[in-house]
Design goal:
single chain; about 240 residues; alpha+beta; Glutaredoxin; 5-stranded mixed sheet; 4-stranded antiparallel sheet; 11 strands
């Protein structure tokens, strides 16, 4: 079950609407309402949903809320659509698109890439931390991923934050002359010598925070869907709708 983020101001909003505020949820009107409770809250976009009369509010933080046409209520949670093939999580689809766009904007030279063997069939991005045992288990399967035509692009996510030993180790890896070899060495329990350079580790950590990624490993599929935790090659092939070679 997903843990939902419910800040104090949301409860104030949900219980504070006692009368219609406007005929349709415009950005300007909703913005004025939110700022009554917290001036820092900024709305990036308001859009319709497949549910009649329900609108999606996207905050600048990426948080998604829902409101009715009159602006009397706010909802926080997942919007699920019932289809003939099952439930579709519309909230996650909206967030997946945001993740996909954000990941596409990360320069190639900021990522450590383990390229597919032969024809490339898919590219996945993985936030990793060398102090994370499940990240080590995932990395141990790299040859299998690559043999199945899957390219893995790594981004750094030091869970213990700046100043930690893991943070410095990730900096050492990204600053190494051969980062992929250095990452292999660190994942195998070896020590990578201390180095300093203009590195992307802090930017990667900030990106993970913006995308609300809180643990490692976190694997992003080509469409932006997020898979948490260690995945083996068969599971990843299933997520990618690929048959084994």
């Amino acid at each position: 079950m997903k843990t939902l983020f419910r800040p104090w101001w949301l409860f104030a909003l949900v219980y504070g609407f006692s009368a219609p505020l406007f005929a349709a949820p415009t950005l300007e009107a909703m913005q004025s309402v939110l700022q009554r409770f917290d001036p820092r809250l900024q709305i990036a976009d308001i859009s319709s949903t497949p549910m009649s009369g329900l609108y999606q509010i996207k905050l600048s933080s990426g948080q998604l809320l829902y409101t009715d046409a009159q602006g009397e209520f706010l909802l926080l949670g997942d919007l699920l659509q019932i289809t003939e093939t099952g439930l579709v999580d519309l909230t996650d689809l909206a967030q997946a698109d945001e993740r996909r766009v954000a990941m596409d904007q990360v320069p190639s030279d900021e990522k450590i890439t383990f390229a597919a063997s032969g024809e490339e069939r898919a590219v996945v991005r993985v936030f990793t931390d060398i102090s994370c045992p499940y990240c080590v288990q995932l990395h141990d399967q790299m040859a299998d991923f690559n043999q199945q035509g899957i390219t893995v692009e790594y981004l750094a996510m030091p869970r213990q934050g700046p100043g930690s030993r893991a943070f410095q180790q990730l900096v050492n890896i990204w600053c190494a002359d051969q980062p992929a070899q250095a990452l292999d060495q660190a994942m195998a329990g070896g020590r990578v010598r201390d180095q300093a350079c203009e590195h992307p580790v802090t930017r990667h950590a900030q990106l993970a925070q913006r995308l609300r990624i809180q643990g490692t490993p976190a694997t992003l599929l080509p469409d932006g869907q997020l898979v948490f935790g260690m995945v083996d090659v068969q599971t990843l092939l299933g997520h990618l709708n690929l048959n084994p070679r």
